Amino acid sequence: MFRWLICAVALSLPMAAHADWIEASSKHFRVYANDDKSDIRHFTKKLEIYDKAMRELWGVPDGKIPATQRLTIYVVSDVASVQQLLPGRSAAGFYEARASGPVAFVPADSGDVLTAAEVLRHEYAHQFMYSNWANSSFPTWFSEGFAEFNATADFRSDGSITFGARPDYRDYGMLRSGTVPLSMLLRPSFEDMSAEQHAIGYSRAWLLTHFLLTQPDQRGQLVAYLKAINTGKSAEEAAKALDGISDMRLNHYIQRRALPAITVDADKLAVGAIELRKLEPGEAAIMPARIASSAGVNEETAPAVEKLARSIAASYPESSAVQRELAEAAFDAEDFKASEAAAQRALAANAENVDALLYRGMAAMAVAWNNNGTDAKRWEEIRQWFLKANKLDTENPRALQLFYESFEAAKQEPTKNAKSALLYAYALAPYSMDLRLMAAKVLLEMGEGKAAQTALKPVAYSPHASPVVDIAQAALKELSSAGPDAAADLLQKKENALRKQAAEQDSEMSS
Q1: Structural domains in the chain plus CATH codes
Q2: In terms of domain of life, where is this protein from (predicted)?
Q3: Taking the CA of residue 415 as centre, how many other CA atoms within 13 Å lie in the half-sphere pointing to its CB?
């Protein structure tokens, strides 16, 4: 319908006694929840219907989805449990795009203001955008406005879905144009905003997005604006495409008695089957550690997660899934020998456990790298783990990425085959910012400046500040001013500096 626009730590996670841990699998999702089967089936089916409705709305075809590209969703008890997984942030749910597969963490109960369903729909809208328009750049206001516009989808009793409902949980900021005027909203990022401005920015982003999408006369302006952003225009230059739109006009718009909405009819929303599986006792027991590992740990939290995983895994030595989680937890805690051993036990139980193969190779690679090992035969042996994983799952981006990384870790020039593997990983998981940066470096070394620019731009426009974003921005400038070779050299120097900084931090932590 919008074809015109774009062609925590888990130690304290509650585990309810009344239900089992269930895995629900569908075309686009893999959901883990400690709930009743009927509720999980309904939950997953609504997500599939939501995906189908967005595809109808935005004119996005639905092709084959590799298993690694499905969104894995962990449903935890409440917002407090989410925030334990994300210390220092007040998010009610969060999503991360990774080469190993996109993942989201959402609460089963998020309170009375922002529903758990809206949290998840917001996060999935990000995944939908980053997957389907991976080579496009979007400023923060549209990225968040798009997510909010889709998040309030209304499932009607006749089976249809209506988009455009007002997010009541954002009412506080709807008219606060004095705090976040349009000139501030249209900046590439929200990172320089205060906490209050950031919250209001979401409200005003939804308002501007709703106005541009539902008013036929304004759609051309949005198209022109996004084209300007994606052809290298500055934020100030691109904003000229929105001439005539003002804070006052938006304030009048939001005060209308009724706002326009867009409905996708029920006959367009048929979805496929939902498969349910009750987790084995060991899988259920290890789930708190698995959730923590999947959410991400640091030097302080990794040892506790490994301790938890080790204590549980002792009771399930022949469970491939349990030993695979211990391999991850031990790897995160930099206990590489323990990680190798756990991965080996996982493989003894199931030789086709792809993740266990990857951790077996990753642990061996970490040991070799820490020892400054350069023995070619040893590195060939390490690569066999990644090649075995790739043979079992040819569309697993992480296996391809690790194969390439093994050459850099060994201080060897990546082979043509390794570079091809990395570029295929990038094609499979274009939503991964790390992969895009690595692919850009390979493309620059090949003299493919335009393709490298395509890889770098979405990273440079990422709404979340990080060293990766800074590197992408610097590389784009160098590419524009000095060409591919200079940009490749800059990327290498920046990456080396990051590695040195990380190594120094590790040294300080251990001293």
Answers
A1: 3-268 (1.10.390), 296-404 (1.25.40.10), 432-506 (no CATH)
A2: Bacteria
A3: 8
